[in-house]
Specification:
This protein is an alpha+beta fold and 343 residues long. It is built from five helices and 20 strands. It has an eight-stranded antiparallel β-sheet with strand order 2-1-10-5-6-7-3-4, with no helix packed on it.
């Protein structure tokens, strides 16, 4: 019985620590981007409702939160109290410098301080430079932070679902074309992850967001499905939904390229539209249409539309997007895309 328990324990832990090769793109707080490959295990996300074990193959994007390091809590709160009550400039200067030295870890406690109604007072007459606002600005500047960062780590799952919690890791070891790098978590702003799915059969669902997945967007405009196709493999794409393209006078579009202006009452289909076709050929795609390409280096925009059945003309990873040559972040809506693989 003991041997059986030990065997089950080893098997369970063996599955728990299994790692997969993944392509990653890291946006750093200093504005740099690092791309490469790494080995990643399934993610244990600690949420307010308990621990979740999320397969790494399901995670497409991670936004790194500031977190809350309680080891600096008392120090930060003590300095905040001084900066909110003392009228002695030298005393405030010491608390100010100590707060700035804590760095990015002080930000969650400063936010909590601001959010507490007890700390809101109209009687503060201090007009010097050693203020909480100035300390926060200096920390953000030295840490290359523009705007607010989430407190929690935010995971995007299956390109649709979003969940927050604590993803506990200290660094990522990345293999790049220039060598191996070890990047600390506190230097990372976001992580895009792609775990390649080998050629085979099955179904996958993706979400194309008009605010991002536009073919003319040079920064992440093409959704990397993670699905590897092999030359000659059959596959189909079925899409539904609606987008509003701010770049096209806020007209509405469907996955087949049909459009309707704000003042129009009927949908207008683009010339030459077909519901089901092989190979995505036949001229340029229509605006708003679902398009695909195989491989990252290609510049093709192959038409998929609302319903596509065809074969892969070469081997590589499948990318999908919404066709439009001009990108506007004010776009709205999105398409749901179902990918079905044959053999």
């Amino acid at each position: 019985m003991k041997k059986l328990f030990l065997l089950l324990f080893v098997i369970a832990n063996g599955f728990g620590i299994a790692q997969k090769q993944a392509e990653v793109s890291l946006d750093l707080l200093d504005g740099n981007v690092i791309k490469g490959t790494t080995s990643l295990a399934d993610i244990e996300l600690v949420t307010a409702f308990g621990k979740l074990q999320i397969p790494i193959s399901k995670v497409s994007h991670i936004e790194i939160g500031i977190g809350k390091d309680n080891s600096v809590s008392e120090k930060v709160k003590s300095n905040l109290k001084i900066l909110s009550t003392s009228t002695v400039d030298d005393t405030r200067k010491g608390a100010y410098n100590d707060l700035v030295k804590v760095g990015i870890k002080a930000i969650p406690f400063i936010q909590d301080f601001y959010n507490d109604p007890k700390n809101v007072s109209g009687e503060d007459t201090y007009t010097g430079e050693y203020t909480i606002d100035n300390a926060l600005s200096e920390i953000q500047s030295s840490s290359n932070i523009s705007g607010d960062l989430p407190k929690e780590d935010i995971l995007t799952i299956d390109n649709i679902y979003v969940m927050g919690g604590n993803y506990n890791f200290t660094k990522l070891d990345i293999k790049t074309e220039y060598g191996n790098l070890s990047v600390p978590k506190e230097k990372i702003k976001t992580i895009d992850i792609t775990v390649a799915t080998e050629p085979g059969s099955g179904e996958y669902t993706f979400k194309l967001n008009a605010t991002k997945h536009i073919s003319g967007n040079t920064n992440g405009g093409w959704l990397k499905t993670g699905v590897m196709l092999k030359n000659g493999q059959r596959f189909s794409l079925q899409s539904n939904g609606e987008v509003i393209m701010a770049s096209l006078s806020n007209s509405k579009y469907k996955p087949d390229g049909s459009s309707k202006a704000e003042t129009a009452t009927e949908w207008t289909k683009p010339y030459g539209t077909t519901e089901d076709y092989e190979g995505g050929s036949g001229g340029y795609p229509s605006y708003g249409q679902v398009v695909y390409r195989i491989g990252e280096s290609t510049t093709e925009n192959l038409k998929a539309g609302a319903k596509f059945n065809g074969t892969a003309k070469k081997s590589g990873m499948l990318y999908i997007s919404i066709y439009e040559t001009v990108y506007n972040a004010a776009n709205k809506g999105g398409y749901n895309v179902k990918l079905s693989l044959g053999k």
